[in-house]
Amino acid sequence: MILGSSFNMLVVPYLLLYLHAEFGFRGAILVTGGVCLNQIPASMVFHPVKWHSKKPHHCATVQERDCKTDHLRAVLEAFISNLSLLKFTRVVVISLPFAVYFTGVVFTSSYIPFVMQSTGYTLEDSAYCLTIMGIFHIMATLIHPCLSFAFRGSHFPIMAVGYGSLPVALVGFIHGTNIHVKAASMAFFGMSMSFVGVSIGPVIAETFDASMVLRVLSINGIFDTTAFLIIGPLTGSSLTF
């Protein structure tokens, strides 16, 4: 996670493949957990131990302690204020499709190895498809600024292409008759993911204002969570390739 989603798409499939073959399922889980724990010392590179070792300041009076709740109050007030954005149609129009996109991408990517194996493909085949998806995700992310310049700085067309390409790529993957067709579909899928994911922030800034990006993204988080809880169980019971 520290190195980014594109790097994970390239490395994690082969890492999990090796761990599963070498140590079995339980051993792979334990090793993966240990790798995740390494994020703690890795974070020290960016947050020095000396900074975290500062002597804490203890409040001496009740009045001082009460002041510490101002931070929590500010967060709650900001959250309540952000909820008022739900009355704006444009916020809902932006947040709802992105929530469905986010949930669909997460579950589709997670189920690919299991579903491919259930239809006769090997774990190496699924790792190959996910790797191709990661490579094209990186490529699309790198060329994204150039595409925005081609549209005079607008990110709306790029996001629209991404939304339109995702189902096309998924249909191609579902009906692909061999590993090469499925890999090509995953390459298209990875590019579409990048077009939508990278465009969401700039689209919010174009629609409203740069200062509104975080507020709208907080509302988008509510939509993401709701879609995750609703679509997740349905995806698990019905997604077949």
From TrEMBL:
Gene3D superfamilies, alphabetized: MFS general substrate transporter like domains
Keyword vocabulary terms for this entry: Membrane, Transmembrane, Transmembrane helix
GO molecular function, one term: monocarboxylic acid transmembrane transporter activity
Residue intervals passing through the bilayer: 23-46, 91-112, 132-151, 158-177, 183-205, 212-231
Domain of life: Eukaryota
PANTHER family linked to this entry: MONOCARBOXYLATE TRANSPORTER (PTHR11360), RE01051P (PTHR11360:SF306)
Protein name per the record: Uncharacterized protein
Species: Portunus trituberculatus (Swimming crab)
